[in-house]
Amino acid sequence: MPRSDEAEMWFSAVYKAVQEVPYGRVTSYGHIATLIGYPQRPRQVGVCLKHLPSASDQPNARYNSDTVPWQRIINSKGMISQRGPGGASRQEAALQQEGVQIERSNMGERTVDLGTYGWFPNHLPSEDSENED
Question: Which CATH number characterizes residue 106's domain?
Fold first, then answer.
């Protein structure tokens, strides 16, 4: 089913914001929602990332798993959210390739030290150039 124009704009805003998260850093679903002006929608950010096309399935898509660093988005507690089979381990491996250290909690959850690797600016870096114009 095709997305409405409003849904398409939302997905695009999320993907563009995620593209600005620097290499080797992480942020939360909620922070992405806040940066794009909808702090009450962190779960919808997760939905967008869940539906991010795979680069192998859609290599020419403007937004896919190669062009949007989905792995840099974790929950606000610093944990990699559980998703389908193997999803958390893929995210862990992708973050480790960027130099992000992943720890294990007492419950076996994959965690990231937000004090070391967290990225929580007050606005998106792309907004700096918009404000200069």
Answer: 1.10.10.10
